[in-house]
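Title: [Solved] MFS transporter 3D structure

Original question kept below for reference.
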Amino acid sequence: MSQRALALAVLCAVSLMVVLDGSIVAVALPAIQNDLGFTPPTLAWVVNAYLIAFAGLLLLSGRLGDVIGRKRVFLTGLGVFTLASLLCGIAQDQTQLLVFRFLQGAGGALASAVVLGMITTLYPEPRARAKAIGVYSFTQAAGASIGLIAGGTLTQLLDWHWTFFVNLPIGAVALALAVRLLEPDHGTGPRGGVDVAGAGLVTGGLMLLVYTIVKAEEYTWADGRTLGLLAVSLLLLAGFVLRQAKAREPLLPLRLFRSRAVSGANTVMVLMVAGLFGFQFITALYLQRVLRLDALSTGFAFLPAPVSIAVMSLVFAGKLNHRFGARTVLVTGLSLVALALGLLATVEAAGNYATDVLPALVLMGVGFGAAMPALMGLAMSGVAAGVASGLINTTQQIGAAIGTAVLATAAASRTGSLLTEGTAMPEALTGGYRTAYALSAGLLALAAFVAAVVLRERKAQEVIVA
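Solution (posted by the thread starter after getting help):
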């Protein structure tokens, strides 16, 4: 294996580890609750503390990579993430675990924000880059499902501490290899500057927005507290946009959005991830609360999805993109995912995994495995800047938060209405999940429409240097 291929393997392994951490803990939550005494509302913050730090710091991390060098930012993030994983594993109370989860999210943001930019630099040739992005996209697309499997296995065979300890050997080996394999880059240096005011506005705005979204499940969207927090977060983000228009060295140059590839791909990413991240949450509940699978069986029930994603993204996606064009492959893949979610919207309380869930997971894996590499390629093709990597990862996390909150609220509302009407619990739960699946299908259909209308293949003159 060449040094370049080894470097790609290290980057993708770290990316997979960070993505896994967003879901691997989900299956361990009941054990964490029993051990550390979390209440149901506070237990959600084991996930939310990570998500808020991760989403809020991605854009700033991408810009830091441009200024001080991506390798330096990557190594720092990897080191922080690995250390925080150790601290999470040995946490003795709720406060310690939540603080260390926040630190873990910050490290994950630093490492993740620059990975895609480093891959595009490693592989400047179009065909080789398409294959490399296919490998990276697999780690992004399949990571959450693999995390559910790993979390169920580690929790059931060992204990919840190992959902964090598993990162230690991976992080240590990756850090040693990254120091040797990754080419040093010095960035633009201090003269390029970092927009400190802009960084504060966007980090505060994004963190508060994600916080508002996750708290909306507790307060409801109509509650004055939710509306107040939402207003403040939007004001901070509006201030960030104004700042970017005037700053000499903006954190996010607004001219990036002149590229249809950048603006269109980020819009598609929000819609796609909103539908699919919420789908995983809803499906895990359906499998456990309606079909009565245990934690380990639930994790393995998702296995066909990452297998299908792997086959499509690693074997066929690059060839399909080269032959038919990224936009065509993206629209087709998103349409297949929308169809799979539409099939899930017909599940019954007396359903069967093999006939009602499995076919949809396979179809979804094929569609997502085709769509994700195409989308990543389009997102990076219109701009020659590391900040684009941080931007596409930020929209991915915002989409995840929005999707989980909206779909969980919709499912709970529908279930509550059915229970009020006298419907039995299994049927009421299933009715709520069907509503969420239908909304997910709608989001994916809208993503396919945006991709078909807005995106187009890049022309050489459209590349924008930030």
